[in-house]
Amino acid sequence: MFFLHEAGDRLDCQVPDPIAPHGGALELETFLPYRLAVLASLATQAVAAVCAAHGLSLTEWVILTAIAERPQTSAKAIGATFHMQKAKVSRAVSALLRQGLINASPHRGDRRLVELTLTPQGQALHRRSAAAAVDLSRRLEDALTAAEGEALVRGLAKVAQTSLTFKAERAKDLAPLPELREDTVVKPTSGGC
């Protein structure tokens, strides 16, 4: 079974059987989507701690990093690329503008859009926060052997593609799945997950 027990700042993990048996009652400990949600929540909390150490929210950090990777991008493109809610992106862009970390100018080809670029202050903050994020990523990667890391990347790609396919198929059904709020965080319970 897959259990996460908080012991201070440490989690005791018991490796689950590879896949829960099908046909029985649903058990969260073996329900892959829930296990992935818990893992995503824990990883997000670690990244959020890196962001907070640099005075940024997670959303602000994602936007700052996206602009560093793709100068002159738009808030609309960032939201679509990173599956972020429009209002959340808008609030974070406004905060980054107020802090003097980004500039906004009319898009050359489409006046309805605004191009976002980093200011020198934003570039400096991005370099510092990116170095800390890379350190975190290395720590997570070091928890796995090279073969485990490669298998994880391949497995996650397959699960992501299957999830997209499932969502597309459900969109054709009469009763579509509700959209999840991005601010929903799944936290492990002390009794296991």
Q: Can you walk through the features of this model?
A:
The chain is mostly helical. It has a single domain (3-172), classed as Arc Repressor Mutant, subunit A, CATH 1.10.10. 54% of the residues lie in helices and 11% in strands. It has six helices and five strands, in the order ββααβααββαα. The strands form two sheets. The chain has a three-stranded antiparallel β-sheet. α2 crosses α5 (120-142) and α3 (75-81) packs across α4 (86-98). The longest helix has 27 residues, at 146-172. The chain is globular, with a radius of gyration of 20 Å.
Order of strands, widest sheet: 3-5-4
Roughly what is the average pLDDT, rounded to an integer? 84
Structural class, from secondary structure content?
Answer: mainly alpha
- CATH architecture type: Orthogonal Bundle
Roughly what fraction of the amino acids lie in strands?
Answer: 5-15%
H-E string: EEHHEHHEEHH
Helix content: 40-55%
> Which segments are poorly predicted (pLDDT under 50) over 5 or more consecutive residues?
188-193
Number of strands: 5
CATH class: Mainly Alpha
Query: Helix tally?
Result: 6
Q: What is the terminal-to-terminal distance? A: 10 Å
Major beta sheet summary? 3 strands, antiparallel
**Total domain count:** 1
Radius of gyration: 20 Å
CATH superfamily: Winged helix-like DNA-binding domain superfamily/Winged helix DNA-binding domain
CA-based shape = globular
CATH topology: Arc Repressor Mutant, subunit A
